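Example 9 (inverse folding). The structure is encoded as follows.
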């Protein structure tokens, strides 16, 4: 009976999560060609649009309606005051700079955490109609099709992706130096502008590895779970398991992880 109850609860969370992320994705889809307002936050090109806020409002209202006791952490609104074993971690529009320039490499990311561990997450790019989902211990999926990381085991033959912080003065592990380290060796590296999509594309084998120097929990909570459930590895820059309160992340297919880790540490 206990297991039946747990299964019912997980299925309810999954159904709610997928319905909600699709609805938020529709906000992005309808908003990208509209005349929306763009505001600056704390750093140059750290943007927020009306569409971010509309998508976030939809997500938060739905969670508060269905699960009023659950805690929340969202990019634009910050953390709620609730104390709960459950916490929803939300990025209503990951890749805002892309979106602001009508570049459809952006997504909605929502994760559900229980007792400090992410147990479920989804990332949705409505422009490509790609919905990634993972539940802890149950694998990772793209539009209901199981996905797995690549089998590439030579970093010299790898296809990599990274992201840059808005500014990085006095930051260790200079992002440009690490980027240049690979470029000088002829290793192809992309910078797409959406950490959530970067992680999902590692999970489904399009990329072999990803690293980023400065991220937030809402950027990667869902994507990191999706990578792990697809058979990949996610750590910090020291090689320890990645924690959501950390700011540096390396994700890979696992095979090239030691090589990628060493490169980021020594570049």
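The amino acid assigned to each position is listed next.
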């Amino acid at each position: 009976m206990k297991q039946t109850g747990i299964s019912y609860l997980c299925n309810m969370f999954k159904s709610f999560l997928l319905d909600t992320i699709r609805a938020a994705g529709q906000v992005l889809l309808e908003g990208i060609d509209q005349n929306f307002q763009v505001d600056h936050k704390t750093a140059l090109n750290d943007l927020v649009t009306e569409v971010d806020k509309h998508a976030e409002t939809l997500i938060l209202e739905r969670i508060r309606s269905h699960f009023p006791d659950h805690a929340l952490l969202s990019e634009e609104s910050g953390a709620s005051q609730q104390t709960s074993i459950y916490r929803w971690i939300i990025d209503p529009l990951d890749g805002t700079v892309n979106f602001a320039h009508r570049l459809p490499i952006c997504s909605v990311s929502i994760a559900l955490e229980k007792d400090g561990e992410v147990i479920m997450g989804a990332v949705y790019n409505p422009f490509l109609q790609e919905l990634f989902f993972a539940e802890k211990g149950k694998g990772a999926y793209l539009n209901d099709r199981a996905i797995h990381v690549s089998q590439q085991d030579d970093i010299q033959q790898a296809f990599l992706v990274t992201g840059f912080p808005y500014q990085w003065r006095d930051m260790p592990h200079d992002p440009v130096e690490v980027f240049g380290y690979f470029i000088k060796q002829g290793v192809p590296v992309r910078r797409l502008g959406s950490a959530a999509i970067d992680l999902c594309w590692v999970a489904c084998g399009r990329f072999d590895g990803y690293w980023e120097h400065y991220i937030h929990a809402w950027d990667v909570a869902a994507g990191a779970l999706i990578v792990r459930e697809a058979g990949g590895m996610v750590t910090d820059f020291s090689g320890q398991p990645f924690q959501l309160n950390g700011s540096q992340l390396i994700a890979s297919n696992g095979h090239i992880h030691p090589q990628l880790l060493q490169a980021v540490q020594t570049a």
